């Protein structure tokens, strides 16, 4: 039974709980992250801090957000490099001197100002039913459309259209998963927003390739 409130959603037939797979919104409480139900992360080993594992440069004071839709599948080592990772590049040196010269007198506004670098990107947005392969890297400000597949170790520096497959460094579109008419119909269906009972009842159609049956 799919359960969006459980920490570990994968249980084997013998009752063994797979503790390396977690529902992300059950293990992350971060003011700059929004994570939809059933979006999971699978790591080779249990992780102490899942927010830091997937988005190590997203801080509570960061201006940008990481938004992850529903039913997103994130493999081991995939990372979101958000805008707060960036160094200032408008001057002669990129060295972050101010990061290492804070004192007890350094105020909140001064710390927050460190994130306001020229040319920074906005939010990183991952659509619904996206699969990110092992050690994929998503760069700041990227939007990945619903149903997209990101290849292992891809470095995604530009937006990815819905139901596209991208791979490589820099990541480039390898192919469309379906023709445009099918993509449009799938985006109109938005099965991930259906009631849970309906998703479970129709999971064969959702996982299948008969669009007429899914629409019925």
Report what the structure shows.
The longest helix has 10 residues, at 180-189. This protein has seven helices and 14 strands. It has two domains: 21-86 and 121-177, UDP N-Acetylglucosamine Acyltransferase, domain 1 (3 Solenoid); 179-216, no CATH class. It starts with 20 loop residues before the first strand and ends with a helix. Strands 1-3-5-8-11-13-14 form a seven-stranded mixed beta sheet. A four-stranded parallel beta sheet has the order 2-4-7-10, with no helix packed on it. It has a three-stranded parallel beta sheet with strand order 6-9-12, with no helix packed on it. The protein is an alpha/beta fold and 216 residues long. It is globular, with a radius of gyration of 19 Å. Strand 13 and strand 14 form a beta hairpin.
Radius of gyration: 19 Å
Overall average pLDDT: 93
Into how many domains do the coordinates divide?
Answer: 2
Coarse morphology: globular
Topology:
Blueprint: E1 21-23, H1 24-27, E2 33-35, E3 40-42, H2 50-54, E4 66-68, E5 73-74, E6 79-80, H3 108-113, E7 124-126, E8 131-132, E9 137-138, E10 143-144, E11 149-150, E12 155-156, E13 164-167, E14 172-176, H4 180-189, H5 196-201, H6 203-207, H7 211-215
Parallel strand pairs: 2-4, 3-5, 4-7, 5-8, 6-9, 7-10, 8-11, 9-12, 11-13
Antiparallel strand pairs: 1-3, 13-14
């Amino acid at each position: 039974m799919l359960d969006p409130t459980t920490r570990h959603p994968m249980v084997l037939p013998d009752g063994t709980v797979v503790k390396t797979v977690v529902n992300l919104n059950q293990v992350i409480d971060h003011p700059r992250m929004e994570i939809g139900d059933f979006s999971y992360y699978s790591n080779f080993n249990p992780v102490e801090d899942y927010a830091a594992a997937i988005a190590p440069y997203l801080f509570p004071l960061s201006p940008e957000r990481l938004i992850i839709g529903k039913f997103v599948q994130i493999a081991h080592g995939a990372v979101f490099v958000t805008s707060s990772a960036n160094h200032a590049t408008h001057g002669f040196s990129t060295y972050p001197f101010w990061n290492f010269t804070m004192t007890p007198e350094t105020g909140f506004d001064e710390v927050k100002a460190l994130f306001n670098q020229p040319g920074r990107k906005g939010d990183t947005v991952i659509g619904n039913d996206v699969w990110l392969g092992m050690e994929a890297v998503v760069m700041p400000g990227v939007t990945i459309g619903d149903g997209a597949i990101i290849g292992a170790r891809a470095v995604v520096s530009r937006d990815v259209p819905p139901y596209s497959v991208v791979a490589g460094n820099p990541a480039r579109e390898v192919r469309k998963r379906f023709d445009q008419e099918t993509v449009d119909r799938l985006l109109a269906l938005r099965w991930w927003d259906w009631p849970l009972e309906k998703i479970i009842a129709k999971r064969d159609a959702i996982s299948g390739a008969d669009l007429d049956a899914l629409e019925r």
